[in-house]
Amino acid sequence: MEIDLIEEIYKLVRQVPRGRVSTYGAVARALGDIIASRAVGLVLNLNPDPDRTPCYRIIASDGSVGGFSRGIEEKIERLRRDGIEVRNGKVMNFGKVFFDDFDTDYPLKRLRKEQMRLSRKVRLKDELGEIRYVAGFDAGYSKSDPLTAHGAIVTIELESMEIVEEMIARKRIRFPYIPTYLAFREFPVFLEAYRRIKIQPDLILVDGNGILHPFKLGIASHIGVSLDLPTIGVAKNLLMGEMRGEDVVYQGEVLGKAVYSSRKPIFVSPGHRMSLDTAVRLVRKLCRYRIPEPVRLAHILAKS
DNA sequence: GCGACAG
DNA sequence: ATCTTGTCGC
After folding, report:
1. Which residues touch strand C (CB under 7 A)?
2. What region, left, alpha or beta, does residue A287 occupy, with left being phi > 0 and alpha being psi -120 to 50 degrees?
3. Which of the nucleotides in strand C have any atom less than 7 Å away from a protein CB atom?
4. A287 is catalytic
5. Which of A96, A205, A220, A304 is 20 to 30 Å from A116 at the Cα level?
6. Per residue in A145-199, pLDDT tens?
7. Is A272 exposed, middle or buried (0-12, 13-18, 19+ CB in 10 A)?
8. Which nucleotide shows the minimum CA-to-C1' distance to residue A139?
9. What domains can you pick out in chain A, each with its CATH number?
């Protein structure tokens, strides 16, 4: 069963008693990683039942009330009805009413361990047969329905660069975007689309990173190891690491390379069954524009 | 207010 | 990621 982190967040929020408040960061720590604090806010913004899940009791860590989809005034009013005093947008006696005693099994820590386990299976020597079909994967979302992911796979023939197959899948999202946990959000919809394609790709390019990840398991590696297929990660922005010329270095290791197929670079890292140099060579070959064709076409399809 | 961390 | 017409420049 896939993890429903959105429900985990609501369950934590329901633990905050009347007359107490907690913070986005405290809920994130109870999930297992402070990096999820912004995601907590975004999920609470989508709270379908504010009467059952008192998200107004979650405020910013500086004691200011933070946002509320029905207006900040309504949030302050609800806090006052709980007996919380608010002055100038700040909760009074914040230290006294702050709740942090969550009952939790730290789901994100479990997922982090899963990443570490899978990262040991990543192989970075070239294990490619003849490459004829190259697939690209990307996911898209819409503001009007942010809880549905549209996963697109477009497969092209490398030699002709012609599209040979397109597939789109839709799936309910139960995991917010959290930096370094992207695969837990998008892998399910990838799999949904992948299961339906008829032409077996020899290589998959993924919108996101490969080993250019704090635990060397970005979404491209996650997909590669899970399917034992050659994969490459292609990111439009840098997640981590520092530039040394065109190398992206993290903790003394070159994990990725900036590829300048246009003015603004993309950041390429091997996902699985591939060396960095081979990943870069293949990406260059696939670039008609800034983004390599299979990913660019998948991006367009995911938005349609 | 700034900085900022794939999508 | 999403909200988004037309316009300018290479």
Report:
1. A 140-144, 177, 207, 236, 302-303
2. beta
3. 1-3
4. no
5. A205
6. 999 999 999 999 999 999 999 999 999 999 999 999 999 999 999 999 999 999 9
7. buried
8. B7
9. 5-105 (1.10.10.10), 118-303 (3.30.2170.10)
